[in-house]
Amino acid sequence: MSGRRRWRDGTGVLRVAGRDAAVPVEIAATYGPRRRGLLGREGIDGAMLLTPCNSVHTFRMRFAIDVAYLDRELRVVQVRTMGPGRLGRPRLRARHVLEAEAGAMTEWGVVAGARLTIETAGTAGTVGPEPADR
């Protein structure tokens, strides 16, 4: 197997390793939904996963957001809080970006080094990128 997972637009449940919280997540995997992101919204219940993605901006945003940069294995590379009108630097190791309202990620336990999983309706059990070695 290639070790890569092909993401699709839709919804799922985000889980943080070692924590009980189940967070609803929207998945934006195609150009239109990734480009739109959280623009024009007053807030978000849960989080949004942008994939593939390694940088975001908050121009025309109405609220501050937490941004977690994730590597191929959904391990958190870095977490930042960005106010409206900001441009984030690209993170070279990041392959996905998780966005949520400011303060939410601390509550969920999303910190640098944390391992995340995402459960989607079309799959059985917990999914993330497939391990390279089987």
Structural class given helices, strands, pairing? mainly beta
Poorly predicted spans: 129-134
Query: What is the CA-atom radius of gyration, in angstroms?
Result: 14 Å
CA-CA gap between termini: 9 Å
Fold and architecture overview:
It is a single chain. By secondary structure, the chain is mainly β. The chain is 8% helix and 31% strand. Strands 5-4-6-3-2-1-7 form a seven-stranded mixed β-sheet. A hairpin with a 5-residue loop joins β1 and β2. The radius of gyration is 14 Å and the shape is globular. The C terminus is likely disordered.
Topology:
Blueprint: E1 10-16, E2 22-28, H1 31-36, E3 47-50, E4 65-70, E5 76-82, E6 96-101, H2 104-108, E7 116-120
Parallel strand pairs: 2-3
Antiparallel strand pairs: 1-2, 1-7, 3-6, 4-5, 4-6
Give structural attributes.
134 residues; mainly beta; seven-stranded mixed beta sheet; 2 helices; disordered C terminus
Brief overview, please?
The chain has 134 residues and is mostly beta strands.
